[in-house]
Specification:
By secondary structure, the protein is an alpha+beta fold. Helix content is 56%, strand content 11%. The N terminus is likely disordered.
């Protein structure tokens, strides 16, 4: 590799060992830049704020105020994933690997193993990005929420594209032992402006006769071809012909293109889930419609209980689907947005007789995105409809309970009135019985007095005592009743 192709001779994260001649060439190249972003990218690459280890410098020493512990991290976040500097011709291989959370530590150990084999500095633990010069190739690793990307850049090419790849330089046993599952795997052949353009036959051979999509990128400074299909080696392929981009611009073009393809495939992970759920949602929709239609024919509590059971089963099923697909559909929206953003950044123009990449994605990827969005919206709609059906059933149950309560209160009112009448009847009988016993006592007392020699008229006295005793018993009974009612009314309600 020439010095111009490699601004750094070791990892970007480690101290630079480049010769003064290399640095002079890099300085001359940057002074010819016409893009304002290039100065930023070159500064990032020459800046050692992105170490491969935890050797951060203390930028807060000597400050007269307290500093937030994450201040340096916040400043460095904008520079966490610098664009590569790529000199054409070059070969690039890209892998995007889904890594389960439980395999994150194993993946990091696997990356350390690759660094040990080539004798380069280790990446910092939990770093989101790492890049290094492995001698015969440049290596870049990016960690994302659910996947990890490996990019291998080999600074050479051959007359026949794709007859050799950057991935051939990687130990095969390391690739076989790589944790996770590969989702995106593709090779990129990058031709220099000095190389002749490939004719149709050469393009057909390079892409194994597949139908090609092409676009003129970066306002005509580069042309890309791809079939967006897997080829005989199990990899996708892109061919980029650089017409006038310098190394920094080429690196940005490469970065946007590989991100677009990676995010495209990650977005499409939601499509199989959407297709699998489609028929099931149709079935649930029909069941829900039948349940709602049967609500008008419900006659008793058994029908209401059956409807409630059916609605509960549908609600549980829909909620389970929402839980299982919510993350995937949310990720799909984010990935699709990134694909469209990267496509806009490529500034594509029409290439004669070829379907453009933007049109291809609009015709193929956008319908897949709309399918997933439709399934997601149908899930939410079913959940809302089930909730409304449950509310209707609850209203019906509440009305039934209210009618039952009204009937119960009326029945209690009738029983209360009947009990009052019975109580009054019992009260009259009680007065008569008590009066009878008291009159009998008076008669016994008068009889005893007559026997003792007193001149009394037993029948007269007994007859006179009857109204007196009845009046006294009635007065005492009502007095006791009023006292009980007064005590009952004064007790607080519980």
């Amino acid at each position: 590799m020439s010095a111009e192709a490699r601004p750094h001779s070791s990892e970007i994260a480690s101290n630079s060992n480049a010769s003064s001649a290399d640095q002079d060439l890099l300085t001359k190249e940057n002074t010819l830049s016409v893009d304002p972003e290039e100065a930023i990218d070159s500064a990032e690459l020459a800046d050692h704020r992105f170490p491969a280890s935890d050797n951060f410098t203390d930028n807060n020493a000597g400050l007269p105020f307290r500093v937030h512990p994450r201040r340096d991290e916040l400043y460095n976040e904008l520079h966490a994933r610098p664009f590569p500097v790529v000199q054409t011709p070059a070969r690039v291989s890209r892998l995007a690997v889904l890594i389960p959370e439980e395999d994150r530590d194993r993946e990091f150990a696997h990356l350390q193993n690759l660094c040990q084999r080539y004798g380069v500095n280790m990446p910092a633990e939990n770093c989101s990005f790492y890049q290094a010069d492995f001698g015969s190739f440049q290596f870049r690793c990016g960690r994302h929420m659910e996947f990890v990307t490996y990019t291998f850049i080999r600074p050479e090419t051959s007359e026949q594209p794709f007859n050799s790849t950057a991935l051939e330089l990687i130990p095969q046993d390391w690739l076989r032992q790589m944790p996770g599952e590969v989702v995106a795997a593709f090779h990129i052949e990058m031709l220099d402006a000095s190389q002749p353009a490939l004719n149709r036959e050469q393009l057909k051979t390079s892409f194994e006769g597949q139908r090609l999509v092409s676009g003129s990128l970066m306002d005509g400074d580069a042309t890309v071809w791809s079939a967006f299909r897997l080829h005989g080696d199990g990899f996708g392929r892109f061919l980029i012909h650089n017409h006038g981009l310098n190394n920094n611009q080429t690196g940005r073009l490469l970065q946007r293109l590989v991100e677009m393809e990676t995010y495209r495939l990650m977005a499409l992970l939601a499509l199989p889930e959407a297709r699998r759920l489609g028929p099931s949602l149709q079935d649930v929709d029909r069941k829900l419609a039948a349940i709602i239609a049967s609500a008008a024919d419900m006659k008793d509590h058994a029908d209401e209980r059956k409807m409630l059971t059916d609605l509960s089963q549908l609600a549980a099923q829909v909620e389970r689907w929402r839980t299982n697909t919510n993350y995937r559909f949310s990720a799909m929206r984010a990935y699709y947005s990134l694909v469209m953003k990267r496509m806009d950044e490529l500034r594509e123009q029409q290439v004669e007789n070829y379907f453009t990449i933007g049109s291809f994605l609009e015709r193929r990827l956008t319908p897949a995105f709309n399918t997933c969005e439709s399934i997601s919206e149908r899930l939410e709609d079913l959940a809302r409809r089930i909730e409304r059906a449950g509310d209707l059933l609850q209203t019906r149950v509440d009305l039934t309970i209210e009618a039952q309560n009204q009937s119960l209160l009326s029945s209690m009112d009738r029983r209360g009135k009947l009990q009052m009448r019975l109580q009054e009847t019992v009260e009259g009988l009680s007065i008569a019985a008590i009066s009878y016993y008291m009159v009998s006592l008076v008669k016994i007392l008068v009889g005893a007095a007559y026997s003792a020699g007193f001149a009394v008229n037993k029948d007269l006295i007994t007859g006179i005592s009857v109204p007196v005793v009845v009046a006294l018993v009635w007065w005492l009974t009502h007095r006791v009743k009023k006292a009980i009612m007064k005590a009952s009314n004064s007790e607080p309600d519980i």
